Structures are given as C-alpha cells and as structure tokens.
Amino acid sequence: MANSRADTAMLQSKHRSWICCLFLVLQLTSLPVWAKPDSLKEVTDGNWEDILAGEWMIEFYAPWCPACQQLQSVWKEFADWGDDMGVNIAKVDVTEQPGLSGRFIITSLPTIYHCKDGVFRKYQGARTKDDFLSFVHEQKWKAVEPVSSWFGPSSFLMNSMSALFKLSMFIRRCHNYMTEQLGIPVWGSYVIFGLATLFSGLALGLLLVFIADFVFPSRRFSSPDYYQKKQTMEQARLIQHQEDEHEADGEEDDDEEEEYEDRDQDDVWRRRRGSPEGRPEPKGHGFSDEALRKRVVCSREEEEEDS
C-alpha cells in the first residue's frame, strides 16, 4: 500500500511539472515579438512640418519609377545609419502625397533633398550609400546653394502650389470615378468639369463684386443731391454749347464782312486803273499794276508842267 501511494504521488508530481512546462511554453509563445523599429520615416501632407526641425534627408519617389525602385535598397541601408549620425532619413510617395509634390516642385524622380533646421538643399551627387554618408558626415551640403525663401516649402507661393496640386489630384480622381465606376464617357466628364468651372467662375466673380461693393460702397449714387448736380452740369454743358455756336456764327459774319470790304476795295482799284483822261481802259488792253502806276505818275507830271 505504501509503495502504491508513493508511485501515485510521483505520477501526480510529474503531471504537475509537465503542466507547468506547457504553461510556460504557452506564455513565452504568446509574448509579442519586439522587432527592430524601422529607421526609414515616411513624410506626408499631415506631418511634413516635422522636417523643419533637425537634420533630414528626404527622397521623393514613385512606385512606378524604375530608377526609384533601384534606389530603394540603397536608401534603406542608408537609413540604418541615420540614428548613428543623428539624421532623419525619410521618403515621400508623390502619388499618395500630391501636396508635397507641388510644395517642393518635383519635376524628376527620384529627387533627394537635404534639410537642416528648415533650410533646404537639393542633392545632386551620386546615389550610393557611401556618397550619402559622406554628404552628411563630412557636411558637403554646406557647398550646395540653399533653396530661396521665395520657393521654400513653407512660403505663400509653395502653399498655393500645394493647393493646386491637391486640386488637380482631386479632379483626376473624380474623373476616374465617373469614367470607371459610373460609366460616363470621357467627353461627358470633360463637359461636366467645363460647366462646373464656368459656373464656379461666375459665382466667384459675383461674390467678389458683392465684397468690393460692401467694403468700398459707391457714394456717387447714394448722395441725395447727385441728380440735382447732374441736371446742373447738363444745363451748363447746353449753355456752353450755345455760346460756342454763337461765337462760331459771329466769326462767320466777320469773315463775310471782310470779304465784302475786300471786294469793294477791288472795285475801287479797278476804277482807278482807267486811262489818264478818266476813260476806262478798252477791253483786251489790260496793263500790269507797275505799268499803271508809271502812267499815272507821268500824267501827273505833264499836268504840273502845263500849269
């Protein structure tokens, strides 16, 4: 009996030990696996202002770009050295972040920027890990001319460009939705966007007119004596016009009187051009004025000699 009890106790203790081992194994397997955190950061339209503080190396890429695909493995290796150098290594997918594409004016892919305390410089060197490390560690970025403040990502101009890029991406998505999901033809989508642009422009123009009239109200028609002044000015213009016509008529009368006086003088001169005896010149024997004067002078001298 004693042996059987001892065996039973040993079996129970073995079962308990097996149960404890199984419980420990289950506990260990259920614990989360703590992997190494990813040192490659991702910048979006929502957190892009984080890059204005500290030192950053940022790659702008697109998944469909072959050159970007070749650079990804090198860029990840370079990102593993970021913590040791105190540099944040990041990437931006321009297909998912159109606002950042417009904010940095990305015209080629991949494009790499270096940022130090909000001052941006475009990387133009070779795309190897050693070149990236030397560019940061040896501070070769100091030899690169920084981006002007006018074209900085936080400037008003670049904020406007970012908004335009976001709007263009929104329009493109709407176009794809209407053509692919709703089955609207392409020309129908263009017509819809054209009408929407037209009516939005008219609405915006009308709104600007209301705002301008509210901010700078016109005092011309609101004045109580405006119409009285207008009537007085019209009467003054009418009187001035009548006076001008009267002066013009007076000048015409003066011209006619001068013409009459000239004609009278011509008649008197023609009468004086007669013969020395007072007879008119026969027709067809006209003399010049000089000859006529000589004849008059000679006739006077003859009369004086006779007297």
TrEMBL record:
Pfam families documented for this protein: Thioredoxin
Subunit structure as annotated in this protein's UniProt entry: Interacts with ATP2A2.
UniProt entry keywords in alphabetical sequence: Disulfide bond, Electron transport, Endoplasmic reticulum, Isomerase, Lipoprotein, Membrane, Mitochondrion, Palmitate, Phosphoprotein, Redox-active center, Secreted, Signal, Transmembrane, Transmembrane helix, Transport
Annotated ranges, domain Thioredoxin: 30-141
UniProt-recorded Gene Ontology molecular function terms: disulfide oxidoreductase activity; protein disulfide isomerase activity
A GO BP annotation: negative regulation of platelet aggregation
Basic and acidic residues bias locations: 266-293
Localization terms from the record: Endoplasmic reticulum membrane; Mitochondrion membrane; Secreted
Biased composition (Acidic residues): 245-265
CDD domains per UniProt: PDI_a_TMX
Matches recorded under InterPro entries: Thioredoxin-like_sf, Thioredoxin_CS, Thioredoxin_domain, TMX_domain-containing
Signal peptide extent: 1-35
Membrane topology: Single-pass type I membrane protein
GO-annotated cellular components: endoplasmic reticulum membrane; extracellular region; mitochondrial membrane
Family matches, as PROSITE patterns: THIOREDOXIN_1, THIOREDOXIN_2
Protein's UniProt name: Thioredoxin-related transmembrane protein 1
Span list, region Disordered: 233-307
Keyword Phosphoprotein in record: yes
Native source species: Seriola lalandi dorsalis
TM spans (from-to): 187-216
Lineage: Eukaryota, Metazoa, Chordata, Craniata, Vertebrata
